[in-house]
Specification:
221 residues; alpha+beta; Trna Endonuclease, Chain: A, domain 1; 2 domains; 5-stranded mixed beta sheet; two-stranded antiparallel ribbon; 6 helices; globular
């Protein structure tokens, strides 16, 4: 019987080569294999159990999600792509900065003027009545309570600073139209970056009902 005595290393090798590796051919090829079969199966079961427990406790390991909704995901993404394509045709957006582009289009359509040709123009986004207008747009989620706009500009780069605040559904919530000199007078420089706190410019907020082009405004309320 000595010749049928298997070491742990030999059992692991056989289990790995025959059952762990899903090799082709008969599972039991020798008397030695037959003797170690129950032990090898036990080792595989224990290893599988340990692996499953590790996966459950490790947040970095994700099980494959249900795939029934995958076709719908692809369909919805295709809808987004088609919507962006059509918005380009309508000259609403001109780059992948969709929220910013929609805000610039709204400012142009509500206040008048014309957007600059380049989507990377430094300092301002449109010109109306000879004035350079910088437009910043926010589409805020329900849990986003921030009420400020990051500010990276210097005096002389624009004449008016327009802030458009929208919901995540792209509905108008607030609009501010601030002269350049007022922006710099009240700018908040207490943090690492300069910010425009909306509440500090409340007197330059415009009620949605007082905006020009009410026909368009109503579509975005």
């Amino acid at each position: 019987m000595a010749k049928d005595t298997l070491t742990k290393k030999e059992m692991t090798r056989i289990a790995s080569s025959r059952w762990g590796g899903l090799s082709q051919g008969p599972l039991v090829e020798s008397h030695r294999d037959f003797i170690c079969l129950p032990l090898c199966l036990m080792m595989i079961a224990m290893k599988t159990s340990i692996t499953l427990r590790q996966n459950e406790s490790n947040p970095n390991i994700h099980l494959m999600p249900e795939q029934d909704h995958f076709p719908e995901v692809r369909e919805q993404l295709d809808s987004i792509v088609e919507a962006k394509r059509r918005l380009r045709e309508l000259d609403v957006i001109r780059s992948e900065r969709m929220v910013g582009e929609i805000g610039e289009w709204l400012a142009e359509s509500i206040f008048g003027g014309e957007r600059v040709k380049s989507t990377s123009q430094k300092g301002y986004d449109l010109i109306g009545d000879g004035r350079r207008v910088q437009v910043k747009t926010h589409a805020k989620g329900d849990e986003n309570n921030a009420r400020w706009t990051e500010f990276k500009y210097e005096p002389g780069q624009f004449d008016e600073f327009v802030i458009i605040v929208m919901s995540k559904e792209l509905r108008l919530k607030e609009v501010y139209r601030i002269p350049e000199e007022i922006v710099f007078e009240r700018i908040d420089e207490t943090k690492k970056q300069r910010i425009v706190k909306w509440d500090d410019y409340a007197d330059f907020g415009i009620a949605l009902s007082n905006l020009p082009n009410q026909e368009l405004v109503e579509l975005f309320r």
